User: Which sequence fits this backbone?
């Protein structure tokens, strides 16, 4: 089955930049979405269609996608950004949802 | 404001059927064509798309669950429901109801990201 691979963990100091990558063979043809997931809470959509920031999401969150790799960047990381982050896209066969393996961001 | 609220038994015995409901408030399921979805997270693991159901009843299921899964909508009660048959310990987790950010016409399909989520309901499968 199709997989989206993420780095398991990223550790950054407050004020630094965190970059989270998502790798998948279908990404050149599929949009990527990013979610922030904190324990006991529902996921929050932080990036839409590769690089669109939903209303209410801080400007320090940005996204990009090139070839088979998509990147979520958090500039000027704050303590409240500590969470698990998941990319989401789709395969090219059924066009069904696929979530990435997740990245734990520690601040 | 659109709100989603999952409900169902917190404990299900192995081999039985898990039934969950998502109650939608703040909008009518039948007003626009959305694919209402279920996403789950097993303990210590990542997010997994379970399946999606259109306001008309059209469904798309995760291939790994397709043989055991049924999703349906009740537009009169503004609810989306899930049944997973023959559950095992692997079905333990938190189940979220979610709505994608964009609507679709009937017979269209696109895996748009989810911008509205319920708080989730925890399900444990016991042996």
Assistant:
């Amino acid at each position: 089955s199709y997989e989206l691979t993420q780095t398991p963990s990223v550790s950054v100091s407050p004020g630094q930049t965190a970059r989270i990558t998502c790798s998948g063979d279908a990404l050149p043809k599929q949009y990527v979405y990013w979610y922030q997931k904190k324990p006991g809470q529902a996921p929050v959509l932080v990036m839409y269609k590769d690089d669109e920031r939903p209303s209410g999401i801080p400007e320090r969150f940005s996204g990009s996608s090139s070839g088979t790799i998509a990147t979520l960047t958090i500039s000027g990381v704050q303590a409240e950004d500590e969470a698990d982050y998941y990319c989401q896209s789709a395969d090219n066969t059924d066009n069904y949802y696929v979530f990435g393996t997740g990245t734990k961001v520690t601040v | 404001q659109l709100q989603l609220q999952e409900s169902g038994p917190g404990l299900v015995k192995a081999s039985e059927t898990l039934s969950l409901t998502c109650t939608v408030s703040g909008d009518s399921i039948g007003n626009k064509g959305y694919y209402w979805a279920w996403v789950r997270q097993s303990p210590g693991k990542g997010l997994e798309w379970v399946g999606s159901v259109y306001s008309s009843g059209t469904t798309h299921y995760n291939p790994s669950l397709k043989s055991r899964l049924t999703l349906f909508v009740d537009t009169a009660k503004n609810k989306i429901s899930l049944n997973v048959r023959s559950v095992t310990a692997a079905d333990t987790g938190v189940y979220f109801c979610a709505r994608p950010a964009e609507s679709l016409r009937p017979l269209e399909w696109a895996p748009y990201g989810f911008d509205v989520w319920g708080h989730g309901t925890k399900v444990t499968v016991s042996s």
